[in-house]
């Protein structure tokens, strides 16, 4: 599942926005997650975790003009992918005012 969102700001500020929002989400919903990991390497965040027995992983890459979210959902969650993608797109658009 790949989502591309324009950010209309600097790369550094876009990364701060992503970091801040992920922190807020983990504070709010982190009790559902287990084995969650996030690791920035330059402008690329690798993430993985489990929720309710389902694993997910992926990357968030910040470029000069876009934030690219590439997530891998388990096969059992594929029927829900359109709803998950729509929710992530709404969240990302709200973060960057697009």
- How many helical stretches? 2
Evaluate the radius of gyration.
13 Å
The name of the CATH architecture is 2-Layer Sandwich
**What is the string of helix and strand elements?**
EHEEEEH
In the sheet with the most strands, the strands line up as 1-5-4-3-2
Rounded to the nearest angstrom, the distance between the terminal CA atoms is 20 Å
In terms of structural class, how would the helical and strand content be classed? Answer: alpha+beta
- Compute the number of structural domains: 1
Percent in helix: 25-40%
Mean pLDDT: 91
- Largest sheet descriptor: 5 strands, antiparallel
The global form is globular
What name is given to the CATH topology? Answer: TATA-Binding Protein
CATH class: Alpha Beta
Q: What percentage of the residues does DSSP assign to strands (E)? A: 35-45%
Beta-strand segment tally: 5
Structural features, described:
It is a single chain. The protein is an alpha+beta fold. It has one domain (about 1-95): TATA-Binding Protein. Helix content is about 35%, strand content about 40%. It has helices at about 10-30, 80-95, and strands at about 1-5, 35-40, 45-50, 55-60, 65-70. The longest helix is centred in the N-terminal third of the chain and has 19 residues, at about 10-30.
How is the secondary structure organized here?
Blueprint: E1 2-6, H1 11-29, E2 33-41, E3 44-51, E4 54-62, E5 66-72, H2 81-96
Antiparallel strand pairs: 1-5, 2-3, 3-4, 4-5
């Amino acid at each position: 599942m790949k989502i591309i969102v324009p950010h209309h700001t600097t790369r550094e500020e876009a990364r701060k926005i992503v970091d801040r929002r992920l922190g807020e989400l983990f504070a709010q919903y982190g009790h559902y997650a287990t084995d969650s990991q996030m690791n920035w390497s330059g402008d690329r965040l690798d993430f993985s975790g489990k929720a309710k027995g389902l694993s997910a992983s992926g990357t968030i890459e910040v470029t000069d003009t876009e934030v690219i979210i590439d997530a891998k959902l388990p096969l059992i969650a594929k029927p829900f992918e359109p709803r998950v993608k729509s929710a992530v797109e709404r969240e990302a658009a709200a973060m960057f005012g697009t």
